[in-house]
Structure formats: C-alpha cells, structure tokens
Structures
1.
Amino acid sequence: MTDFLGRHGLSIDSRLVDFVEAKALAGTGLDADKFWADFAALLGKFAPENAALLAKREDLQAKIDAWHQGREGQAHDAAAYQAFLREIGYLVPEPAAFQVGTQNVDPEIATMAGPQLVVPALNARFALNAANARWGSLYDAFYGTDALDAPPAKPGGYDATRGAAVIARAKAFLDEAVPLASGSWADWQGGQPALADPAQLVGTKPGGILLKHNGLHIELVIDPASAIGQTDPAGIADVLLEAALTTIIDLEDSVAAVDGEDKTLGYTNWLGLMRGDLTESFAKGGATVTRAMEPDRAWTAPDGAAFTLPGRSVMFVRNVGHLMTTPMVKLADGSEAPEGLCDAVFTSLCSLHDLKSLGTLNNSRAGSIYIVKPKQHGPEECGFTDRLFDAVEDMLGLPRHTMKVGVMDEERRTSANLAACIHAVKDRIVFINTGFLDRTGDEIHTSMRAGPMIPKGEMKASDWIASYEDRNVRIGLACGLSGKAQIGKGMWAMPDLMKGMLEAKIGHPKSGANTAWVPSPTAATLHALHYHQVDVFARQKEIAGEAVPSLDRLLNIPVATGRNWSEAEITRELDNNCQGILGYVVRWIDQGVGCSKVPDIDDIGLMEDRATLRIASQALANWLLHGVCTEAQVDAALARMATKVDAQNAGDALYEKLTPEGIAYQAARALIFEGVTQPSGYTEPLLHKYRQAKKAAA
C-alpha cells in the first residue's frame, strides 16, 4: 500500500514528500510549507485548464472523424479539407513575421552543432553514460563497430591489423578536418603540429593537444608508453571527439513511470545530475565498477592562458505532455493531478541546485533550465506551457524565462501551425525537433476515418514526410532560431548498424539541423564526424531564404487509395507490427523497461519506445477499422509472434513468456483493438493501466 501525506489539501505519495522535503528543497532557501501551498495553488489554477485543452483535442478529432465519414466513397477534396480545418480552428492564422527573443542560452544549444542523446531518467547508469558522452574515443568507435571498411577484429585480445585500419581512418579524418601545413597526420612525428590554419590549434596540456574545427574540439591523446601510443610515430594513443553536446534526460517516452515510486526515482536521478554527484555502481568483469560524472577539462591556450572545457553534455529534461495524470498526487476531490504540471514543478526545483551551484558540478553556465515539452497540439497548448512556466518561475523565485522550452514538432496540429507554436513560446524556446515516429502515429490517428493507411514501411517515402522535415527547418530559421536554439532531427534507431548511420545521417546536418538524435555514446562519436563534414551554420545561411514547403503537401493524407493487398502482404504487415508490439510491451509491462534494443521481425536490434509502439498499434487499428484485416487474423499474428518474441528473449533470465492470459499479452492486444478510441492514439493510458496491474500482482 502506498502511504499518502496531506499537504494543503493535496494527498501526496510519501516517497515524493520525503524526497522533496529532505533533498530537493535542501539548500534552496525555499520554505517547505510555502512550497506545498504554492504547488496546491498552481494545480488549482492550471489543472482545469489542462483538462479543457484535452477536451478540445477530442472535440476537434470528433469533427475530423465526422468530416471523413460524411465523405466516405468520395475522392478527397484537399481544398475543402483545408477550409474545414480552418473553420473548426484546427488550423490558425499564421503570425506576422517575428524573431524569437530567447536569451541566456548555452553555446552547446545556440551556437554549436553536434549530436544529441536521449536516455531514460530512471536508469542512472545510462544517464551517466550519456552525460559523459561529451567526449568520445574515435579509435574505440571505429574498432568496435561496423563503421570501418575493414575486416572485423579477431577475437582474443587486441587485433593489431584492425587497429592499424582504425588509426589510418582516424588520421585521414584529421587530414580533412585539421590539415597540416604539409604532409599527412599519418607521418607526423610529434611536437607542436604545424597546421595549415594555425588558429585550429587552441590548447595543450601534458599528454594532450587540442584542435578545433566547425566549432567542435578534437583532442589528441599523446602517450608514447601506452600499448597504442608506442606503435605511433608521434605517440598518439587516441583521438577524442567532442561528441554529444547535449543530452535529453527523459521522463516521457523512454520510461515506464506509472506511480510515485517510479517518478521519485526519476526526479532523484535528475537532482543528482543537476548537483553533479550522481553515481551508480554495478558488476562488470567480476568487479564492482562505480560510475560518476566527468569533471571539466583543463587546458592552456597558445597565449599561455588557462581555460577549461565542459566534461559533460548540457542536459535537458523531457517532461511528460499534457495528457496523463499521476496517482502520486491527488487533488482535494480525489482525482489525480496532471503529471505534466508535477514534472514542471519538481524538475525545475531540482534544477535550482544547478542554478545556485549547490552541488559539485554545473549543467548550464548560462543560468537556464532546459525542459523539452512533448506532445503539444497546436499553439494554444504551447501558450499554456508558457504560462505554466511563468507560474513555476514565480513559485521558485526565478527571473522570467529562466525556464527554457523545447517544442517537439511531433503532432500534426503542431506541424501545421509551427510558426504560431514557436510564437507562443518565443521568449523561452531553445529547441524544435521533428519526431517522425510520433508524428506518423498522430498522422494515422487524426485521419483514422479517411481510409486504410499505407503500410508502416512506406510512410517515410510519403509526400507529407518530406514537407514536414523541410518545413520544420525553414520555419525555424524564419523565426530566428539560428544562433539561439536547436533545430533538431530524429533518431537513428539501429545501434548495431553504424556504417549505415554514417552513410544516411549526414542528411541531417545537410538539411540545416544543428542537432540530431543518436542511440548511444558510440553513435554520438561517429555522428560527430558529420558535423566536421558539414558547416551547419553556413548551411543555414544558404537555405534561410528558401520558400517554406506548402501546407497542401503536409496535409496530404497517406491513404492507400485503390490498393488491393495480397494475403501474403497482409500477413507480413500484421506479423511485423505484432512482433514489434509484443517485443516492446512485454518488457514495458513485466520489467518496467521503457526503452531498449528490441529485435525486430528480422532479428535486427531497434531502439524502441512508445513512439514506435504508437505507430504499430495505430496502423493495425486502422486496418481493422477499414476491413483490410480481421480480428481473427490479428489474433493469429499475435500468437505466431509471441512464439518468436519468446525465442528472441530466451537469454533473459527476467523474461516471462507471453501467454494470452498474461498481463503483457493482454496489454498488447488492447493497444490494437482499442486503438481507435485511445486519445490521439497514445499508448500511455493502456500501458500505465496494465503496468500498474502487473506491479500490484507482484
């Protein structure tokens, strides 16, 4: 049984109360009683408005459903559709030209371009790995992945042949990014390097040389006594790249946080990151290893001046969206408090420890709190977030716009009104990001009644996607985000396929995006190479005046008009989606794992989270609705794929086999068969329901 404590008319999980009063408030100068009184007042003001915004979502969706049902069998009339969306307020007028006014932004976000990691807040080890991924070994990244065009390392210790290929590739990179005045880095004998551009040599220290290109640092580790250095003419033991400039510590799609226990753990880890004192111990190779946050790095400039570089990523925290409520805080009437309101207050309270330098290390040198706010539907909801952040700032005694916001452009109503959404948070915005996965799930749900959708694998080639990706960058540039905020792109989901990532993901900096998501610290190191190949800010200047792709293309519904699928095609699509749903949901429900590398139907490991689940479940719900497949066919696919998922997880000692009577299996089935009625097609309500049932049963 969960114990609840009363605070100013609220009933609050005792674990959260203990955390706030003993840890989060400590040293901040805030009075506990006043804090809870202010929190209760904030909920009293914003919870009803939150509920009204969600009701408006449902009203708009009902009107769109009715519009499509009233035109069943007719050819789609794009002009009439757009006029209808304007009439009901789904589309709003474009704001007059404006420039965002965001100030006090760290350079990693505003004026640098590089990779971004996203990690679950509930896993301290992952969070520490990500925070420390600011610097990554290029030698290790090439040696241990398929990114290098050379035979893989032979087992049984260091493979010198593989190592030689790694070193040759790394030095070829140095020749491209920081060329010597003459000759190649492969022949460099050591000492102070004579560069073609002497300004690229920015620092030295015993055992290190610091170079800079496209705003990113490169460290040469000089250690002639090391196993690698003794084979190198200059004693180079490694090449370190400045890699993950920023990291999102996630309380949303990559976590399974369903109650006060889970949320308090997430807040605790965030507090540790903001204080710089988070540690995690674990067994590795028969020994206990303790991981902690990396310190800053000391250097000497060519003029003799001492300086430091950050040792860690600048961290955002991703709060949940407006939809969910949480059982950890109950209002006076016994109803659950909106979870997003709680996140805004408690994550910002933890961030006070950074702003007030109460810990050992700092996150934001500019004095800002960085919060990513996902799953907002249109400018009205963005404006709600802006006013909520005003209230939290007042509650915590912070100057206006200390709390910065990242707007995920992952819902159709936001994409279609992006300039107005940016305008609604124009003095605190530091981030926009295209999220193909959630955006596709919302595309399917919004147009659920328009007809059967094209298969999931064909979505990336659909017309609306290209318009969506291009509009995001060009609208962001037109609103003045360059030099003040990140324009981001989505995840490379295959962490084992780094060669493919190197070939494909250069498209993100070429698009004008100054950050993009990667699935691991190693991937961040490799993706950093792209930002040496492309000067993103020069690219932004090139495309700044280009026209924004039309709204007509963005609203082009991906319906499979006149398509007749064979039985084999239907079976393959059902199996593909059911396997992905079961493989993800079984870990979410049974083990509380919100994001992990899940083998797909072809046994390729994919980073899966709730966004991928939203696509698969909505795709099958759509096909069921329109008779492309039957309930019996879906159930047969679930049965087939349960056997496959069991086999894929045979090596997991914690794994529980999937059975129709099991809670995880029931959750997967509900996501499909109740998908049409889920709010915006989100998976959270059902996942939370079944995870809570699993925890109660345990």
2.
Amino acid sequence: MNLARLATQLLTRHAALRAWLPAALGLLALAGAVALSVQSLSTILPPPLWWRALWSPDTHDIRQIIVHDSWLPRLAISWLCGALLGLAGTIFQQVLRNPLAEPMTLGVSAGAQLALSVATMWAPALLGVAGQWLALGGALLAALIVFGLAWRGGLAPVTVAVAGLVVTLYCGSIGVALQLFYAPYLRGMFIWGGGSLVQQDWSNVMMLASRLIAGGLCAFVLLRPMTLFGLDDVNARGLGLSLRRMRLAALALAVVLSAAVVSAVGVIGFVGLAAPALAQMAGARRLSQRLVIAPLCGALTLWLTDQAVQRLSGAMGDLIPTGAATALFGAPLMLMLLARMHRASRLPADHNDARHQPVGVAALRGRFIGIALLTLAAFALALDFGHGPQGWHFSSLDEFSRVAIWRAPRALAALAAGAMLAVAGTLMQRVTGNPLASPEVLGVSAGAALGLIALVIGRGDAGHVARIAASAAGALAALLAILWFSQRSRFAPDRVLLAGIAIGALFQAVVAVAIASGGERAATLLQWLAGSTYTITPTDAVLALVLCIVLCALTPLCNRWLQILPLGEASARALGVSTRGARLALLLLIALLTAAATLVVGPLSFVGLTAPHFARLLGARRPLQQVLLAAPIGALTIVVADWLGRALLMPRELPAGLVATLIGAPYLMWLLGRRR
C-alpha cells in the first residue's frame, strides 16, 4: 500500500511539473527578452536619459534620436508583428481546420514579395513613394486569386488551403527566377524577404497598432462562427451557420492582418504557424483562449528573436533579417515541447471536400498507360530534341552520340526523382490525412539542404562526392530527429508534421541568412534549392534509377496499412494493425524516397505536393491507385521541366524544380477553378 501510494504521489508530481513546463519556459523567454532589451538599450544610451529619450528627445543628442526614432519603434514593431501573425495564424488554422495553415497559406507573403520584385526591376521609382502599398496590393491580389479558385467549391477548407499553397508556389517560383537572373539588382529583396524590423519612425507602429486593435475586436465578434468551424460542415449548417459567407469574412480578416505585417516589414515566417501551436501546448484549448494566448506567444517569440539578433550580430544587426532568424529560437522550443507530449491525436477529417464521381478501373488503367507513354515520349524528346546554333532541331545520329552523354544522365535522374517525390507525397498525404503535407514538410529534404549549406559555408567549392555525402548525412540526421521527437506520441500524424515543420523552419532560417549575404554563394544555393540537375553524373543517374525502382516496389506492400490507418486507432487495432509500427515503417519509406530525390533535384521541387492532387483530380481514390497514377505524373513533370529549363532560354538555364512549379501550378489552378 505504501509503495502504491508513493507511486501515485510521484506520478501526480510529475504531471504537475509537466503542466508547469510551458509556463516556466514562457517566463524564462520573457526574462531573456527583457534582459537583452535592457542590455541593448544600455549600450546606446545611459539609463538616466531613457525617460527623456522616450518622451522628449534632445535633438542635439544623436543617441536620444536613435533610441526614440529607431530602437523603440523596432521594439514595438516586434511586439505588434508577432501578435498580428499569431492572431492571423490562429484564425487560419481554425477556419481551414488544418494545423499547417498559417499567414503564408493564402499566398499573402509570396504575392507581396513578387509585387516588390517586379517593381524593383521595372518601376523602381514607385518603391520610394508607394512601397508599402505595392506590397499590400500584391498580397491582397494573391488572396483574391485564391478565393476565386475556391469559390465554386464553396470555399471548402481543403480547396482553399490547396489553392493558397499553389498560388504561393507559383508566385514564389517567379520570384526565385527573377532573383536567379537579376541577383545583383535584387540584393535588397533577399534581406526584405527575410523580414527586417529596422525602423526610422513611428508610422508603421501606429498603422500596425490600429490593425491589431481592430483585428482583435473583429475576431471576437466572429468568435461563435469560428468556433463552429471546428465541426464538420454538415453539423455547422445544422446550427444555422452560413458557411461561405462566414468563412470568407474570417479568411479576409486574417489576410488583411497578414498583409499589414508584410507591407510594413516584409516576410516573417514560422511565427504564424508556431504561435497557435505553442498556445495549444501551453494549455489553451478553447478558441477564445487561443485568440488571446497565441498573439502573446507570437509577440514574445519575435521580441526575443529580434533582441538576440541585435545582440549577436553587433554592428551588422541591420543586415540580418530577424524574420528569418525567428525559427532559430522558436523551432527548438517547439521541438522541446513536442518531445514531452505523449498524447496521440488524429488530424480532423474534412467532410466538405468535393468529390468527383468514382472512376472505373478500366478508365484508370487507360489513364495510367496514357501518362506512362507520354512520359516515355517526353524522355525521348529530351534526349533528341534541343536548341542549338541552328535553332530547334532533332539531333542527327552523329550529333546524338555526342550530346546524349550529357542529356541522358539528367533526363534519367529527373525521371527517377519525379517518380520518387510523387510517391513520397502521396504516402505523406495518406498517412497524415492532410492535403498540405508533402516531402518538403516532413523535414528530411530540409536536413539534406542543411548538410549541403554547411559544406558550402565551411569549405566553399567542395567536390561532387562531398556534396552528396553532406546531403545524405543531413537527411539522415533530420530523419532521426523527427523520429525521436515523435516517438512519444506513437508517431501521431500531427506531431510528425509539426516536428518536420520545426526542422524545416530551421533550414529556412539558415538559408535566408546565407542568401542575405548575396554574392556567388547565394546564387549557387538558390539554383540548387530550386531543383537543379546541373551536376548529375552517369553514376548519380544510375543510382537514382535503382533507388527509385527498389523503393517504389516496396510501396504496394504498404497498401493495407494505408487503407486501415485513416480509420483511427481503435479500428486499426481491432483489425490487427499496430499503428505505431505501421506509421514508423511508412515514415521511413517516405524519408528514404525524399532523401534520394533531394540529392538529385534539391529540396524545393514541390512535385510531391502537386502530383497526388493531380492523381486525385484524375479519379484515383484508393491509395494504390493514387500512387500508381501520381508516379508517372511526377516523372513526366520533372523530365519536361528539366528539358525546358535546359533548352528554352539557352545559353541560360533554369532549375528543373523551378520550371516544374511554373508548369504545374497554373494547370492545377485551372483544375481547382473548375472543381465544384
């Protein structure tokens, strides 16, 4: 009895300590932010002059002017931007019923950045007088396109989320292409794209403060309808909710809040995604609680990050984008909290996704054969048809023997990589039940990229073998980290996704800081990150093809798991399936497919996101049907993209992953616009 009582007391104390952990970490972060702020201010101005610098600075003292017009507005901006992004992220995740939704979901950030890039190249005079309005206009235009694509589908959460992500990819791809061609002229965009909080007056503070107050009031006015969005659409309609009108109003509010931040300081990633997750981990279960706690988490995260950036970077603090560095501080905190969470949960299913009529097996077989034949034809065309001094022409027999040695490895590697990414994306979306899941979200490709970036920064121009080894080591480290952080929750889909996103955010932060330095290193990283096959050798191509055949051949063995896991934990156990073991095996297969493809075409091709949606729009409903249809779609996309990127703008080249997004995104937008 005494032992049982002692064990009960220990368990109770352990549970109490776990419940206080988020609050303790929050207080620690607050203390760190305050300490760094005081230290930063002390280096600029002695403490006796702080009060005077705040209210009536001496115009003859440059230090007081700096504090009043630059340091204090920057401090206030960090609070306001973090709070606005936390509020917008909470609204997005609640309305779209998706833990991956964030302020960047509806193309807000990508639209603003593209608008400023275009203005920088062709209308630079407008930047000085209407830079913020250009960014705001680009953000709102991108969101309007998303709403237009999803309107016929009743603004269903899945349709809105997918349309937003496709618009984001398309705008981002155009922006990357401009940066590759005009890198010297868009150096400032590298810094702005990472979210620079540098201020020169109080105008942005006043603007964002008014947006936060008005947005908070509107959010609480919409509290009841947004709470009902947590139900499926049938039950929400039964309670008298006008789905399309209320969903449009809530999403418009979140878009306006996000666009205000983008127009003021640029793109700040991760905060809008992490703040709602941190609020939930802190114990906020009700929407009303999250609408208050998530903005506080966002403000604290961005405040701490900005002060740390100023402290660590010293005199160069103005050139390091705070928005990019946010993940360096927020992601480890998010991973730490995820590692201590035991409860497995299941992503909410979306019952409002418009379904096409089922397609017969014979029709699906015909479509598969047609796409496979089209892929082979594109492969042959990529080998034989090209652009040379005589223009576009088919190669003669003698010419073909000389050019095939260069073209064949690239085309073969592109085919294998496209198929592997498509299969990995299909498995990822099936396992997690999330239409926004993709190999890029898992974090393995981010780990591969981190390995390459570490090699480039540490050793400069390293050899091809060293690059492959560094990428493979990074992918393996990321996979082990994700599995370790997810194992306590029995590899629950939402925990795996959040762990992958946190690791991916670390990768994006490192990339943004590295690219902000500009120069040849930034251009090289942009080319590889966009999905380049420039350095493929015959050995790499054969290895990619062998890995593709072996790993794709293992996929049919997982068909039973893919059909049973979406039924839930209890049903899966009743049918004799160990959910923990099945999810672990599927995650390993996804990671291997992703890592192998990333070594070929880089981490940001997004074929793993779009190919499963193409397969589903063509009628594939069962897991194995979707895999078999998505694989040739992915292979066809990358082969055609690599061929066009190599030949279309000769002697210049565009990375295959970038061209794949530029080709696939408009067609997917057209399909989404026609869908009811």
3.
Amino acid sequence: MLKPKHTPTRELLNLDGVWRFGIDSRLSEQPWTALLETPLEAAVPASYNDLFTDSEIRDHVGWVYYQREVRVPRGWAGERIVLRFDAATHAARVYVGDELVGAHIGGYTPFDVDITDRVKAGGAFRLTVGVSGDLSNETIPPGRIEVGMDGRRKQVYFHDFYNYAGLARSVWLYCMPQTRIADVTVVTDFEGSVGTVDYRVELDGDAEVRVRLADAGGVVVAEAQGVAGSLVVADVTLWKPGAAYLYELTVEAVDGENVIDSYPVPVGVRTVKVRGHEFLINGEPFYFTGFGKHEDSPVRGKGHDDAFMVHDFQLMDWTGANSFRTSHYPYAEEVLDFADRQGIVVIDETAAVGLNMGVVGGMSGVPPFPTFSEQYAGAATQDAHAQHIRELITRDKNHPSVVMWCIANEPASNEDGAREYFEPLVKLARELDPTRPLTYALVMFATFQNDQIIDLFDVVSMNRYYGWYIAIGDLKTAEMYLQGDIEGWVERTGKPIMMTEYGADTQPGIHSVWDAGWTEEYQVNYLAMNHRVFDRFPQFVGEQVWNFADFATSNGIHRVDGNKKGVFTRDRKPKSAAFSLRDRWRGLNGRKPGATE
C-alpha cells in the first residue's frame, strides 16, 4: 500500500484538525446517520484519552465517534477518490453520510477506503469514523474485557504501556488516476562501486511502465521499462548508518508518451546480512546503540507529532545512538521516512506484545493457563498476528533504515505450543521479505535452556533486567546472572546476540551514595554493569536501553505516574544516565567496543 503523496498525477488533502467527538454510551444508537449530538471536539491526530478531564471518556470501553464535513476539490472529477487513515487504534468503521463504506482491524497500520462512487467533485459529505480501543484474545495486541461489580466494562490488557486509542495519526482525502500504480517493491545490492536496484511494480489497470533513478542532485543515473527489472548504478553512493544517501526512483504508468500516473520512491542502496555471529550492514559489522522507544507524549498520548519526532531524533543523536526499536508496534510512517533521511537504523516491530500468560503469573513465570490455547492465543490470534505481519512488511519494505523485523515482544516462547504458533508466522515473514533478518524479543522466563523457537530466527534479542526485577540493589550478583545467561545463548545458538531491553526505573532528583533503586546513580551504575558484561562477548552486536523516555502505563502500585525507566523524562529532560550513555556511545560509531578501524 503506497503512502499518499503529491505527484504530477495525484493530489492530497489533509483532514487533520478538530473533529466532533462522542462516546457511544452518550450518543444515539446509530450516531453516524446525523450530526453527532455532542458538545465535545477532539484533536486529530491524537489519542482521545488524555484530551478531556472526564474519567469516563479516558477509561471508555466500546466505540467512540469522530465526525467532520469534508469538501471534495472540484478539480477531482473523473479521478479515483480515496480516504486514507494512517492508523485507527485498534479498530475502525468508516461512514460516508449514512453508509458504512469501510472497516479495518489493527491499530498501527494504515488503510484506504475508496469512495469514488459515493462522492462528487466539488461536493461535500459528512464523514463519521467509529473507533474502538477494545482488545480481546482475537486481537493483536491481545487482552480481555471484564465486567465489574457495578456493571461497568473494564479493559484488561497484558502489556505495560497505556492502551491509548483513537485517531492517533493523520487522515487524508486523496485522488489518483483510474489506472494507477498500486505498489512498488525495491531491493538493493552492490558489488564494489556498482549498485543495483531491483524493482517490481503492481498496476491497477492497463498501461506500460517506465522507471528512472535519479541521484540526490536530481541527475538521472539509470532508466528502464517494464513492470520488473534491475537498474545498474555506477559509482554508487551507499546508504549508511549515520550517513544517509537517498536516490529517487520515479515510477510512471504511461500510454505512449502520455503519463497516466507517477509515483516517487526514495531508495537507499544498502545490504543487510547475518554472517555467523555478526550483523552486517553493507558487508561491515554493525553494533547497535540506542533505545526501545514509545510513541508517547503528554496530552497527545500516541498521537504523532512532528516536533516531538525531530526533538527525539536530536536527543538520540546527542547520546550517540544509531538505532531504535519500534516497541511495541509499527510507528508512524513519518518516523521511518525521517530515519531514512537521518541515517538512523530501525528494528521494526509488530504490535504482538502480551502473548505471555507467564507475565500474569508474576516473576514466578507460571501461567494461570497455557498461553497458546484457544482460551488465549489460539487460531484467531494467530490469524490476526499474520495480518499484522503482512501489513507491516507491505508498508515498510522499501525503507533502507529498516534492517530487521521483530515479529513479537516477549512472547511465551518457553511454553508448549510456541513452535506451532510461530513457525507459520516466520515462514510468512520470510516469504514477504527474504532480504531482512528476523528476530523476537525474549522475555526473561524464556532461557537458553527452555526456549522452543530461537532456531527459527536470525538474531537473539534479549530483554533482561538483572539488577532490577532480579537482584535489585545487588549489581555483583546481577552481573553474574547476566554473564551466565549470555554464555548460555552463545553456546546454544552461535547467532548474533543483542540486548533489546535493559533498564532500571529512575525518579529524577533522587540520589544516594549506595546502590539504591530509583536513584539516578543506580541507573548509571546498572547500565555500566550491563556494558561491562556486553563487552566481554565478541558475539554481542548491540545494546538498546529500555527506555528512551518515561511513558504512561496502566494503573498499578509498581508504576508511579508511569514507567520511569526512561533515560529522559516524559517531557524529554535528561537524567544522569543520558550523560553516561553519551560518554560511551559517541566513541563507538557503530563498532563493537574494543573493535579497531
């Protein structure tokens, strides 16, 4: 699915702004059939939960409705007219006037609704969007809804970040030709100074295809015709971490000399491979430094914000970070576009978080019932998970910044049934994209002794909290635990190993001369202990601290105003750990500690 863009043959109208808003319990039975009877208005893009002071809205379980009037530009007569939703968390129903015209399940990937036959150029229509944040054992991420003693429905979920809902990303109306370019896939390679760009184009309609590749200065360096082919680039400039270089592939559907449709695709020429225990970008060993992140900010919730995006990238650059993981869902496309241009490496993750009943059992890791069962993660869950993988890879396959797919965070990979659940998903991901390595983030309960699926994947990604959830305040013991854990994975797998989560909750301004939890000094010492261990293993290929910034979570006595493992506060102020990471990372430049030029 191509991202809407202004091109010589396509036009785009942004529908962001303030929309009428109401929750289903306060609206008529079919609220889309008329103007919403509500005094409320909600910002788009933004999660709705924190916009209002009404707790009934914040904690609402069920459908909410957004509504606005949309006028179609009068010059769009004869064109295909489409509504585009960059995301609706977690399910959506779209109404034009009184009619249901489209629906989507999945809160972090885009969907289009063709409304050509329902609207007229120059005319206006009432657009109503129903959005549900409800989670069940048939959704990704999963959850369940309980009914309390007072009859209220309550959402229970098994991931440790707030279940923000709503239209958190942009909404668009766009037009394109009836015969159009439906999709473009790009795969790059190089040998010596010669690069290759293999392309494949899907058309909707009958036309010829021609393509041209231009360098960053606009000079055409290669051309071809046909729906598939290979472009050769002499004296290629590679896309590198920290040194992004983008070509532009212009794809045209033509009838003779008449251009029917045109679409540009940024192209970064680079390769990604796993060789033994090395992770290679452009044939050179790469060492990840960076963070697990969240789309999370005050008031907006998970609403995308360009200002926060730019500032976050600046702070990552300031620390010396070269990468991040989109924990625990696909981020807005604007974030990946920006990473492409900034040379930041991305591990792109599905929304499959919470597939682990052992977490419900607490640190014992004993599940109340099997995770992989029809009671929880069964066939319907697996189908939803597969669809998420399809939509993620289809959306993000052309981004040079994306170097690895992470298809789940902390699943119960130690439980029976894990292999039957994951093996078909791994096969699907490799069919959709055979060019990138696959990983999943390992929960602490999944050890080198009991994990059942690591052989299906390319990189061992560990989430470990020795010194926090285990042996808190005793970093000597924590160091021995971590050392033995990594040794076990090295001996078992022979694969590259990285830490995708390690961190300690820290309240800014709390200090101690001892190793006391929640203090800024302890966070610094905790990270230093982990780094000492990482540096002992040549098989180790990266470290991503949990978390970049403090973030909102559900209610819980172990969370005071959210998760405080951020190196930065929620409003992006640095803790002491930010400075210690800067001292470590800025000298590494993507190389393993101790490695030479």
